[in-house]
Amino acid sequence: MPKKQLTGEVISNKMQKTVVVEVERIKEHPKYKKRYKIHKKYKAHDEKSECKMGDQVIIEECRPISKDKKWKVVKRLTTQIKEEAEELLDSLPDQEPANLEKSNAKEGTGEPSGLSRP
After folding, report:
1. How sure is the predictor about 62, in pLDDT bands with cuts at 50, 70 and 90?
2. β-strand pairing of 69-76 with 35-45
3. Where are the alpha helices (DSSP H) in the chain?
4. In a domain, 100, yes or no
5. For residue range 63-111, what is the model confidence (pLDDT) as tens digits?
6. Running DSSP on this structure, what letter comes out for residue 64?
7. How far apart are CA 15 and CA 12, in angstroms?
8. Are residues 18 and 29 in contact, defined by beta-carbon separation less than 8 angstroms?
């Protein structure tokens, strides 16, 4: 039987080799059919303590490591996204910032040019 895997966000990394991961899932009400979000927190084992707050991670169930810790971090997703974004930014040619001196406001009045008063 395959082990369960969940995707969530690291909300705390203050413990040694442990992170708290919040998993969000969407549930539908059986009678009214309205969908709503459910958040659940899991403590997961992070052997190298490399996860930071805000990282998206994949956790997998494992044997109990402690009273509350029955999951381990398998992969960090946010790091991969950040690295890919940095590579894309490095590959783009350098663009100069837009000229901020050209604006629609009249000089000295602080009003937009289209809304002049008589």
Report:
1. very high
2. parallel
3. 77-91
4. no
5. 999 999 999 999 999 766 677 777 788 887 776 655 555 555 555 555 5
6. -
7. 8
8. no
Domain that holds residue 68: 5-91
The pair of three-digit structure tokens given for residue 100, joined into one six-digit string:
């901020």
CA angle 47, 38, 49 (to 5 degrees): 10
Torsion sign across C-alpha atoms 57, 61, 62, 65:
positive
Q: Quote the strand ranges of 1-118, DSSP E.
A: 5-15, 18-28, 35-45, 56-61, 69-76
For residue 17, pLDDT beyond 70: yes
In this prediction, residue 26 has a pLDDT band, given cuts at 50, 70 and 90, of very high
Residue 76 falls inside a structural domain: yes
